[in-house]
Design goal:
This protein is globular. A hairpin with a 2-residue loop joins strand 1 and strand 2. With about 260 residues, the chain is mainly alpha-helical. Strands 1-2 form a two-stranded antiparallel ribbon. Helix content is about 75%, strand content about 0%. It starts with 5 loop residues before the first helix and ends in a 9-residue tail after the last helix. Helix 3 packs antiparallel against helix 4 and helix 8 crosses helix 9.
Length: about 260
């Protein structure tokens, strides 16, 4: 059990997200390195911690979208399909993936690898990482604490997106906005291009077109959101580098571990 103070976690998150805007997956590498230098956590536990947080972010954002659509626009369509059904399927797939991961972890725990040393190391590490990840997901206290912060962040993201749509002359309701929040979360799990530049814009445009909000408007909203977030992250990142340099670079009181 190794706890990272809230302020340090926030600094790491800001710096990592800023780095991801320029080099794909650089934020993940940064967080792993800085946590390994400042805590007793191994790489497997760091990966598991990030994995459980990503899982919870997706799950909570999908639940909020499901609740918003159910209450405000239960008949909302995404193209020819019911938005409620599509969100429900996404939640089911996420839970099903968790069950599959639990099954794999259990099987790998019982598996006796062959004489192939490489395969033995891979299977042992994969099983250990999966068990650590599932242990974090099954921790109700940890999940509840993180869920509160994620709900607040999701609501702030929804407000930000709402105002972005207003800036392009589109009056998107809360049901539609929460769908874009979920899409943004999902598109942020893995970066292919810097900050998934171009990918998020296309996804936003397609979803906006399917919701009859306009493809061009969706693309512009994604671009506005990118500019706003880059400005915020750059400002905070510069502030932290100037006034919290030891935290940013993972410098401990006894030097670098």
């Amino acid at each position: 059990d190794c706890r990272v103070p809230v302020f340090k976690s926030f600094v790491y998150l800001v710096v990592a997200r800023f780095l991801d805007k320029f080099v794909p997956q650089s934020g993940v590498v940064y967080k792993i390195q800085v946590l390994r230098r400042t805590t007793a956590l191994g790489m497997g536990k760091v990966f598991a911690g990030f994995g459980s947080l990503v899982w919870l972010q997706l799950f909570v954002s999908l639940l909020i979208a499901w609740a918003a659509v159910s209450v405000y626009r239960p008949a909302l369509q995404i193209g020819e399909f019911s938005a409620l059904i599509l969100i429900t399927l996404a939640i089911v797939l996420l839970l099903f993936g968790t069950v599959v991961a639990a099954y794999l972890a259990a099987r790998l725990a019982q598996y006796r690898p062959s004489d192939d040393r490489l395969w033995r190391r891979i299977s042992n590490r994969l099983g250990r990482h999966l068990r650590t990840l599932l242990g974090l997901i099954r921790n109700p206290r940890l999940m509840a604490m993180n869920a509160v912060a994620i709900v607040a962040a999701t609501l702030l993201s929804a407000m930000r997106l709402y105002f972005c749509f207003r800036m392009v002359g589109v009056d998107a309701d809360i049901a539609a906005v929460t769908l874009f929040v979920s899409l943004n979360r999902a598109a942020s799990v893995f970066s292919i291009t810097p900050g998934n530049l171009g990918i998020k814009e296309v996804l936003f445009g397609v979803l906006a077109e399917q919701l009859s909000l306009g493809m061009a408007q969706g693309i512009v909203v994604a671009a506005l959101l990118r500019v706003v977030m880059l400005a915020v992250l750059a400002t905070l990142g510069l502030f932290f580098v100037l006034f919290a340099r030891r935290i940013v670079f993972g410098i401990t009181n006894t030097g670098t571990n």
